[in-house]
Amino acid sequence: MGLVDDYGAYIGRQVAAGRGARARRLVRLGLAYEGARLRLRPDPRTPKALVRLNRLAVRAVADALARPSRCVWVNLFAPVELLQAFGLRPLSIECFSSFMGGFRVEGQFLADAERAGYADTLCAYHKNFLGAAVDGVLRPPLAALTTTLACDGNVNTFRALGERFGCPTLVIDVPYEYSEANERYVVRQLEEAASSLARLTGRPFDTAALSRALESENRARDLHEEALRLGASRDYPSTLTLQMFKLFATHILSGSPEVEAYYRQLVAELRTAPEDPTALRILWVHLQPFHQAALQKYFNYNPRVRFLASDFDADYGDGRLDPARPLESLARKMLLNIYNGPYERKAAAVRALAERLRPDGAIHFNHWGCKQSAGGVALMQRALEGGGVPFLALDGDGLDRRNSPDAQIASRVDAFFEMLEARRGGAAEPALGPRPEGCHPYEGEHARKETPG
Ligand code: SF4
Q1: What pTM did the predictor assign?
Q2: What is the number of helices (H) and of strands (E) in the chain?
Q3: Count of domains in the chain?
Q4: Are 372 and 339 in contact (CB under 8 A)?
Q5: Of 183, 191, 161, which Cα lies nearest the Cα of 85?
Q6: How far is CA 199 from CA 139, 202, 204, 244, in A?
Q7: What is the reported pLDDT for 194?
Q8: Nearest C-alpha to atom 6 of ligand 1 is from which residue?
């Protein structure tokens, strides 16, 4: 067992012994250690912008855990910009659970949630969070904020958490279709959520702060688009875990100045990164199982494979936010999300992304317990294969290793990459083999410069 396994097992033992508070302190200690490691000794293969993003993600979770009275539990699609108007910090159930997976402690929380009666088939991101709550590792937040968008598990999970902790649960009901009436309906709920947050914090709703967040988000979106365009052809090392951290930039911390600074640095680095037309370019659909060794060998620092983007890079479309009408903008953002409404909307949007980025292949990850991803996979396959994009659907679990047998995934992924190589006319090098430590194009000049944020 490695150090991380030992650390996770030790936390698990504290939890099993009923020492939730001690386990919590250990989790926070792990986050502090990770923050220090990233500051002092980041992996030399990781580009600086991605180190910045990683630090941002670690700090976001650490801060949210440190001050529960200033923390709001959210899901990926919550209108987190609203929290900035009150100086509050979001803690996403998906991201917290992913961190627990990285710390190898998820098994304890998942088992405890199941023992507490939560269904085996419930999405592991929810179940892990519920388990941490049951085990006393999470302290009651100021509030919880979620939407009905995309995920059918959200509302039940958030209600269960609200009941357990006695914290207010704010649920934004997002109708399937955009219309002016539906926009007004969502705006009214956002107004109510803002009033609740004002009451809970004792602070007035700072609409100017919200407008500033949307202005920053617009600038970040432009930079994000530029990064997607540049990243399609540049050699820019990353890993599945770093790709997951991008959810902090595209979702959880949307509108924050730190995210804008990250994108600015990312674009600057991509502009000077070398062109490499030979790598296999992969479009990903849904969450990435960063723990899966069968996939790590292709996506972690492998110069022969490029992770182009995922559907989460494009789920808010290219619509602009209007800072002069911030609540209406947030309502439109949710109503027009590609995850909202019929699955065909998402399939068409991912197809459009593929037309822009021209991947060699697409991988759709059917995360265990996620009805929206598994239920729509055939439609996604038709949309992408119809556009000439080879398609692989993988069954597994982004968090719960018990539901993600590596050998099965390896045989399917290996065959897929062999096929992609063959389509390329036979590559001289196989799509295997991580980049050795300390050997990548980011030892160059721009790697040593930190773009000021
Ligand atoms: S993976 Fe699916 S079920 Fe789980 S949180 Fe995401 S949308 Fe919900």
Answers
A1: 0.91
A2: 19, 8
A3: 1
A4: yes
A5: 191
A6: 20, 5, 8, 34
A7: 98
A8: 151
The predicted-structure confidence for 29-58, as pLDDT tens digits, reads as follows 999 999 999 999 999 999 999 999 999 999
Residues 6 or more apart in contact with residue 51 via CB below 8 angstroms:
38, 42
pLDDT digits (tens, 9 = 90+) for 336-355: 999 999 999 999 999 999 99
Instruction: Give the pLDDT of residue 1.
Output: 58
Q: What is the DSSP string of 159-205?
A: HHHHHHHT--EEEE---SS--HHHHHHHHHHHHHHHHHHHHHHT---
**Closest-lying ligand 1 atom to the alpha carbon of residue 398:** 1
Best residue among 76, 118, 151 to mutate for probing ligand 1's pocket (most ligand atoms within 8 Å of CB) is: 151
Separation of CA 123 and ligand 1 centre (Å): 6
Q: Which residues line ligand 1 (CB under 6 A)?
A: 94, 123, 125-126, 150-151, 153, 287, 367, 369-370, 372-373
Amino acid symbol at 280? L
Q: Could you say which DSSP state residue 234 is in?
A: B
Distance CA 285, CA 311 (A): 5
DSSP category for residue 321:
P
Residue range of the domain that includes 127: 3-450
Strands 391-396 and 305-310: unpaired
